[in-house]
Here is the input.
Amino acid sequence: MRKIALTQRLLLNESYHEVRETLDTHYCKLIHACGFLPIVLPYEVDFKNYFDVCRIDGVFLTGGNDLNNLCPSELSEKRDSFERELLSYCIEREIPVFGVCRGMQLIAEYFGSSLKKIEGEVNTKHTLIVNNDSFYAKYLNKLGMLSSFHNFAVDDLAQDLRVAAYNDRGVMKAIEHKKEKIFSQMWHSEREKEFNRNTIEFISDFFNFGLHEVIEIAKKAGKAVMEIYTQDFDVAYKDDNSPVTSADIKANEIIREGLQSISAYPIVSEEIPEPYDTRKNWRKFWLVDPLDGTKDFIAKNGAFTINIALIDKNEPLLGVVYLPSSGDIYYAIKDGGAFKNGIKIVNTSKRIELIGTDSNFHSTPQTQAFFEKYKIKHIERYGSSIKICKLAEGLIDVYPRLNGTKEWDTAAAHMIAIEAGCKLIDVVTKKELQYNKEDIKNNYFVACRNDLEFEI
Here is the structure.
């Protein structure tokens, strides 16, 4: 389960002569309703311990009180210092941050915005006027009437930020960072008597890096691919003699446009690769194969996929694999499980008589020798990344890939396999495949259940 850390208020209880950490219980209830495990951060323990041990996936800066420069106090100063350090830590590691009310004030001030005193925004209902250039416009446009409780608003917005939404009085109600995964709002979703399903969808997808939007992007690309698939099309060849069709190009255009509308992360794709000098210092980026299995597409056997992955520090963080010919969609996010068509999948096979899989077009004598060595007689053949997805489903047990692949061929399905209890082991390093290498080519690998071991 993915984990979201929450900050707390600090209150002085004079009768007991003690400072108390407090949090409205609805915050944790809201985060859990969004599908996450809430982790409440204490002030007197170094928060970095929680990130190291609990693998925190995002941070929620909660409301309550004002910033110290608005209403000075020792406790406000302590909270400001804690949350600024926390925000800096998240920015450095590209960890998503979502702020509410005071959280928005802190984010605005952190980047150099100014705040002003206002009237008429306490216990008020309002609708949003959404900036459609916002990464989150799709969600904000669905939220309806909202409640606010604040006496200070953002006045002069910092250059690194943009307004995501105003209310009808012209008050900034939501802001976001132009490059980082940082969003904040001045309304209190946690105070709703019953959480709005659109609110849950928004917060869930925010901390899941837009997973459901990525799924829709893949499906849109798949629709365009199928329109070409049913017609006559030309085939060209790249410098490495691999084929490319108009479907590859069209899908790539759709995916790039879609991803750029929901995030500022750079994109590497088979059709537009980036040189290592450009990408070597990237921590997060999209890695795309707009049409994996072009040979299968040309053969019109239906065994091709659209692969979209988000890479985080050399490892897959999110993966979506769409099969346009069948409509099947596989997806996963780190610590969030793997799914096929909305149903969780795990490879729980304990088969002794192993089932292997091999490529439609890329089998090798070395692959056949592998099957003979391990006495694997039942071999299923699939195209593209479908092989790894079938492994994740538990329909096969092992897939030796002893032929050339590129990072975009494997990344999305790799994430799905990991979350389904499987692994892709590099035969050279003996570790999981790594991404954003100087050479975009993968070493040969063996994909299999976690309880199996093989030697090459």
